[in-house]
Amino acid sequence: MSSGLTSQHQGDDVNTNGQSSDVLLSLSAHELRTSLSVVKWYTEMLLDGDCGTLQDDQVKYLKTIQSSNQKAINLIRSTLNVSRLNLGTFSVLPEEIELPSVLKQVLTDVKDIAEKKGVTVKESYENNASGKISLDRQICLVILRNLISNAILFSKEKGTVRISVKEGKQGQELGTHTLREDSLVVEIADQGIGIPEKDKKDIFTKLFCRGSNVIDESSKGVGLGLYITKLILDKTQGEIWFTSTQDLGSTFYVAFPISGMQKKDGRTRLD
Asked: What residues have CB less than 8 Å from 25, skipping those under 6 apart?
């Protein structure tokens, strides 16, 4: 049985630019991820009945362990991505892809989250938005998974998240933003709690865990998802912005330039 995580060589993120704190963080995160992978693996074995039939209470406790362990794994994954981005050791490997196919993969990944909250996800794609564009598929997955997961988590029960892909032209105004260049634009709109005006300036900063109006503990994050997404797009010539009204919902926009991402050699991929 696979744990779903693979351990990488500890030196993957190490460089000689003097950023010792990021290097130490990366090495520590690798060690923690290995230990968490073992917990994940054995918990899955127990839940699958590999060691015999479990009582209901035992299943309940193991699922709590599994959930908490997964949160820790997600934190380690985010921490490693921050380290790779700050150290510049991540690679960008563009290939000709269709954004709708990437989105459908993300929606498969977040299906359980949406079903648990009763959120309906609706997609729409303009005809001219389904063509191929030169992007790093893995990087797109990280970006879109962060944003779509957030849209679902901060939605109200039985709400709707609408995702669309359209072509935008240089100088076109979308939301509160003017496009720098011709791009494919992904819009992710929810009907959730929205973002208070006083919080908007901090939304892409490190460790912005949640808006001051969030009371649902299940929506509490570690404060790295939007920070990582903005950092990735800044380093790959993309753009991100949002509009939001408290109690009515938010719309996040991501623009991938039609010119595509530039290849970058690195020691490891973003995860």
From this structure: 79, 82, 83
